[in-house]
Write a structure and sequence with these properties.
The protein has 171 residues and is α+β, with helices and mostly antiparallel strands. The protein is built from 8 helices and 6 strands; from the N terminus they run E-H-H-H-H-H-E-E-E-E-H-E-H-H. A hairpin with a 5-residue loop joins strand 4 and strand 5. The radius of gyration is 18 Å and the shape is globular.
């Protein structure tokens, strides 16, 4: 799990090489290579952000780069989401750059959103994805999209503040 806006963890040299080779062969690297100027600028702002950004916050950050209309941002975001480079957080109506080392073309991604500091952790597991897909298929449900967002406190914020649920049970 990786926190949006946080630096990526340092990898050992052999792991770093395997990581690069895996990405270079993957769709994500091809998608990044084919980005327009506007798409690259939007992605750069999201990758450098400490947390999720709304389309209008992105527009404000990109005005010096020639962005004038929300449509410029939304078009770039649409392509970035289609390519799996950016995710939309439905509950916040905002966006984050993909921080995981996984493919989004055939899977489900879940997010843990800290309500105190705003950090977003991204999680994808092919086993969980296959289990959910099987359940959907068995139930006959025809989903249009799946969104899994957990809201609460990240580990750092939870450690800094007592759990109110524990107080209610103690007395």
């Amino acid at each position: 799990m990786q926190v949006a806006g946080a630096p990526r963890p340092r990898l050992a040299p052999e792991a770093r090489l395997a990581h690069k080779v895996g990405h270079m062969a993957g769709y994500e690297m091809n998608a990044k290579a084919e980005l327009t100027r506007n798409q690259a600028l939007v992605l750069e702002k999201l990758e450098g952000a400490a947390g999720p950004l709304s389309a209008y916050a992105l527009l404000d950050l990109l005005r010096d780069d020639g962005f004038r209309a929300p449509l410029q941002v939304y078009r770039a975001l649409d392509r970035l989401m289609k390519d799996g480079l950016v995710h939309r957080l439905e509950s916040l109506n905002s966006f984050v750059a993909c921080t995981g080392d996984h493919a989004h073309l055939h899977g489900i991604t879940a997010f843990a959103i800290c309500e105190k500091c705003g950090q977003v952790a991204e999680f994808a597991d092919p086993v969980v994805g296959k289990r959910l897909e099987s359940w959907v298929a068995e139930s006959g449900f025809r989903p249009n999209k799946a969104v899994i967002e957990f809201r609460g406190l990240c580990a750092a914020c939870a450690a800094a503040e007592p759990d109110e649920r524990l107080r209610g049970n103690a007395g």
